[in-house]
Amino acid sequence: MPNRPSILKKPFQDRRSILYASGLSLVACGVQGQEYNALPAPPRAATVVSSTTYYLTLVVNGQSDNQVVPVIYRNGSYLLESGILAKNHVHLNGQQQGLVDISTLPQVKSRYDASAQQLLITVPDDWLPRQDIAGKKLIDYTPAQSGNGLLFNYDSYYSDPHQGSRSVATYLEQRLFSDVGILSNTGTWRYTQANSGSNATLNSQDGYLRYDTYWRYSDDQRMIGYQLGDVVSNSLTWSNSARMGGLRISRNFAVRPDIVTYPLVQYSGTAAVPTAVDLFINGYKASSSQLNAGPFTLTNVPYINGAGEATVVTTDALGRQVTTSVPFYVSNQLLRQGLSDFDFSVGKVRKNYGIDSLDYDDPAVSGIYRFGLSHALTLSTHGEATKGLRLAGAGADIGVWQLGTLSLSASQSQTDRRLIATSWPAESSVSSLDGPTTGNADTQPIGTNSGYAMANQRTRGRQYTLGYSYYSTQYSLALQRLSRTDGYQDINAYTSNTALSLRADQATFSVSPFGQSNGTVGIGYFDVEAADRSHSRLLNLSYSRSLWAQSSLFLSLNKTLGTSGYSAQLQLIIPLDFGGNLNIGSQRDSAGHYQQQIGASKSAPTEGGLGWDLAYASGNNAWQQADATWKTRYATVQGGIYGPRGEYTNWADISGSLVFIDHDLFIADKINDAFAVVNTDHYPGVPVLYENQKVGTSDKNGHLLLPNVSAFYPAKIDIDPLPLPVDVIAPVVSQRVSVREGSGVVVNFPVKKVLSASIRLLDVHGQPLKLGTLVSEQHSQQTTVVGYDGLVYFSNLQTHNRLRIEQEDRTTCLIAFDLDPNSQRIAQLGPLVCRPIHNAPQEDKK
């Protein structure tokens, strides 16, 4: 029998085991009762929010102003203040005040984005403001300036022909300029001397002859010019200018090069989301802009004319691109919508200009006005009157979609002339005394006296013009017809007793049939019918193209229709390595004579230097030429000979200017328009740059004259401080300056020499002062801190200086030192010992 444990042997152990087992059974029963006999408590529903206030960012059609605003949520709807919605371009359906329930607004949708804490609102695109995005201006507006000064221009020409009289003609101009305009006087002094052995007499035109005297001022903000004195009125394409002595008030667009007067290329569209838009004109990128959602109008950089293609590329936030190509046509004959141009001149008609200094006739008035009614229509009108003459007309320039520009005009004149006859037969007509008349003539007797009679002859005439033009990169076409009746006259014709042509037709056409790189063919036709019914008809053919290494070829043919023969010219221009040109050509005149030409030339550099020109022509009229030009800062000198062999004409010319401005006198090359004087505060040798090109250095007075400055253009003028010594400072090194026409301005660049010193400071123990200790220079009121090794640096010092040092232990010390004013470098001083002053003067403790 196998062994087994006996419970009698282990009574206590077995009893403990039984109790343990019983306990486990009770625990198990309790667990089973909890799992199977009890149910969990039912879930409670979340609290329903019927009204609360959120603070959210509004996003309207994808665009946000990043402003947090209160939004009231009430019974499933979102309410906002009316002012907030109106500010974000949401139409309020007539409600102007208080809270607005977005859900009640038609065409408006809203959605709450809890993760971004935004209220997204969608409105129709046409509710959003239109965005006018213009291309970046190439030139910014800079107010024009003028200094006070005097200018004297001269240009003296000497001629000594083989046969004839020697002569000297000198053009002179005196100009006073200031902020209130310019006062100018021009004229010519002439002297003629007969050659020895010649029977020539002195010229009656010798002496001084005045040209123009006037005061002129241009308001660059309002773009209006005022001129008093000798004036030339402005004209339209179908009218003529008139020269008067009087007053002229006119629009002057030239004073604002930043403004484009003709209609710009426009592209309109709608962006559903914030978008980037790029504009390409004829394949070249013109502008790049960022657009918000909504309608937009894009205007490109306006410096184009004629036909082309605009490509608009829009890119949204996800990188998706849409490309749209739009053809366009830009005409500089038109005015922008709402822009006006005008000219009003009143005074006395000037006659025999260039012959008589003071020949003024009857009072006269002349005026023009143009207005851009739309981007495609510009209206114009013109009127003028003087004693016995009245003229009025109107015209229009019309943009014909992308097909070009159509121009038309009509005007009428009426003249009254008083006729005197020695007899007045009843059956005769006074008009017969003045030659044949047309149906426009109206002659009436006004009285008789002692066998003679007087009558007024009233003549009317009309003028009509019609023109068309189209320009593109491949070809261009221009057509124009002008037609007048016999009696039409304007101020110029009426006061000079000249007759205007009756008809003028012209047509020009140019094309690059094989691409611009293979040359351009031009055709021109001109037909003019004079007042005596004679015709002049001319046909012109030309061809030009670029060849190798910037050389070019030009061929032209001219034919006067109705006559035999023609003229032609062939010219080849080859650039040379030294900056000159070689010119080889052949020409034929209408009589069939040929002439070969060869020449070489080099222009004088703008900054100064030598230029020359040599030429020779063979044939029946062999001709030779040789001249040279020497251009300097002070004047331009020219001279040479020309003419057939043995019959040369010698000539010479010198031109220049004298200028007084900024208490200094300048001798300069001829100044035709505006100029500038750079002032470096009496410091010499400072390099000056004009439009990033070095033009010279300041003289001993710290001045440099820039004689060739374009009026009203915001020019960039710089000085180069790098070559200056270390003890010279220039706080301003670049400026943009716009100069008034005919004036000069002083551009100040403060340049001054300063005394500077690097000083090493020690304490009484011979150790460098602690890093960060405050040090002040008492004369210049400068304060700095001690650097490593006890070093401090001061500039703008004087000959005698004194330092005040505040140490960490609140002790103060004073150190005086002197500098050499003639030193050319930064002084190195020290070591200087800081010895505390326990009883410092009261002023030193400040």
From TrEMBL:
GO terms (BP aspect): pilus assembly
Coiled coil: none
Polar residues composition-biased segments: 430-451
GO molecular function: fimbrial usher porin activity
Region span, Disordered: 430-452
Domain PapC-like C-terminal: 759-820
GO annotations of cellular component type: cell outer membrane
Pfam families xref list: PapC_C, Usher
PANTHER family assigned to the protein according to its UniProt record, in alphabetical order: OUTER MEMBRANE USHER PROTEIN, SLR0019 PROTEIN
This protein's name: Fimbrial biogenesis outer membrane usher protein
